[in-house]
Amino acid sequence: MAQDKNKEYSVIGYGRFGKLWADILSEHASVSVYENDPLILEREKGKIDFVDLKTALSRQVVFLCIPISAMEAFLTKNARLFSNDTTVIDTASVKVLPLKWMDQAIPKIKHIGVHPLFGPDSYVANQNNLLIITPSEQYPELGRIWSEIFASWRFFTKTIPAEEHDRSIAYSQGVTHFVGNVLQRMALPKTNTPTLGYTMLQDVERFCRNDTPQLFRDMLTYNPESLNMFREFMKATHEVSGYFRKDVRQIVGETMILGVMGAEGSFSQEAGEMWVKSKQLRDAKISCLTTAEKVYEALNFGLIHVGLLPIQNAVGGMVLETVQGLAKHSCKITGFFPFLVNQCLMRRKDMKEDRPVSIHSHPQALRQCKTFLNAHFPDVPLVEEEDTAVSAYKLSVGELPENAWVIAAETCIKLYQLKVVHKKIQDLAYNVTDFVTVIKE
């Protein structure tokens, strides 16, 4: 198809996909590129029509091929540079947030979202290359217009709402990349028994091999639907691995007792319940022992059969109580169990103050919510307690100042008759705590 010299398009970002997209566009229009990476500029010098940002954003159509994590700041900072006659098209692999950011930053500039379901390693000219189109509610007519344009370029198109796109892509793309990245870490070996299934796994690994860690991280972090996928993936993985792990001793004639480091309503209790379910233990009891030392002591005296203890958190780091206890007591780690933690800020129902006199919780919880606390309560004292659920209990029974607030699990809201102030205040959306199961040697 001949290039139309009257059409002037630009590509913002000349990474692996930006390069592919610029090559595709060059068959249909005059294309210029904005890139701020000096290594790319030097490498492609003389080959590509690089222009300054103001020029690039004044073109008839501007395609954003920048990382999702950089898009909101880019749009906000450069909104005034877009021409009033420009159409802005983002090409990110998630759609709800980019459309929201464009609605907010450039409401008077026509904009639309597309997601090319191909990349540098899978694109084949004039073949089954699919483009998903997600129109903005502000400019719905662009869906039909660009569907016809892409079809004339021999692309297959499908128009769906942004929410539906993100919900679907969290699984169709998110699971694939999740598995592919896991397989990369495993470094799949060559085999003399190449089964069909193993060959398919190698294909998945190769499919994700050239993607950057940032692409994978952004794909999960900026898709609101990915959290459910991630939770289900972790749960399923550990349920399946439970079929052959032998970390629970066969106990005959008595109920298996699992001791957890946490009070009733704690994250440890929630993790314990999930662990029991993953092991398919029909006759099991959870003993809430508040501290790591009490778990180790219960093991030593035969009061529990297995202990479940948090050992590290994605934000808070190592749990010193658990590590120090492992060095002190004669016990053996028999397995690992990751658990997704969502921290909640709560207060007494009868208190109406907008700000607390102090905020109480376990040191790990305070560390996990450091950014939120610094932003919203920089001058409020943070008080360490022995457990998240204990702090909620103490507030409910008057053992803390009545206008204090606490950070604990959502289950404590109902359990201790408290009122939620904010949910999910942890700094990291994927706030995973790794637990270990231990038995007495």
The major β-sheet equals: 7 strands, mixed
Number of domain units = 4
Estimate the strand proportion: 15-25%
CATH topology of the largest domain: Rossmann fold
Approximate helicity band: 25-40%
**SS class:** alpha/beta
Distance between the termini: 73 Å
State the fourth-level CATH superfamily of the largest domain. NAD(P)-binding Rossmann-like Domain
As residue ranges, the low-confidence spans are 245-249
Widest β-sheet, arrangement of strands: 2-1-3-4-5-6-7
The total of helices stands at 18
Give the second-level CATH assignment, the architecture of the largest domain.
3-Layer(aba) Sandwich
Rg on CA atoms, Å? 27 Å
Given the C-alpha coordinates, what overall shape results? globular
Q: Main attributes?
A:
alpha/beta, Rossmann fold, D-Maltodextrin-Binding Protein, domain 2, seven-stranded mixed β-sheet, six-stranded mixed β-sheet, 39% helix
Brief account:
Helix content is 39%, strand content 22%.
Description:
The chain has four domains: 4-161, NAD(P)-binding Rossmann-like Domain (Rossmann fold), CATH 3.40.50; 173-241, no CATH class; 256-341 and 432-440, 3-Layer(aba) Sandwich (D-Maltodextrin-Binding Protein, domain 2); 344-422, Periplasmic binding protein-like II (D-Maltodextrin-Binding Protein, domain 2, 3-Layer(aba) Sandwich). The radius of gyration is 27 Å and the shape is globular. Strand 8 (256-260), helix 12 (267-278) and strand 9 (284-288) form a beta-alpha-beta unit. 39% of the residues lie in helices and 22% in strands. Helix 4 (68-78) runs parallel beside helix 5 and helix 8 (174-186) crosses helix 9 (196-209). The chain has 441 residues and is α/β, with parallel strands linked by helices. Strands 2-1-3-4-5-6-7 form a seven-stranded mixed sheet, sandwiched between helices. It has helices spanning 16-25, 38-43, 53-56, 68-78, 96-105, 141-152, 162-172, 174-186, 196-209, 213-221, 226-241, 267-278, 292-300, 320-328, 363-368, 370-376, 388-396, 411-415, and strands at residues 4-12, 29-34, 61-64, 87-90, 110-116, 130-135, 156-159, 256-260, 284-288, 306-313, 317-318, 331-340, 344-348, 359-361, 382-384, 405-408, 418-422, 432-440.
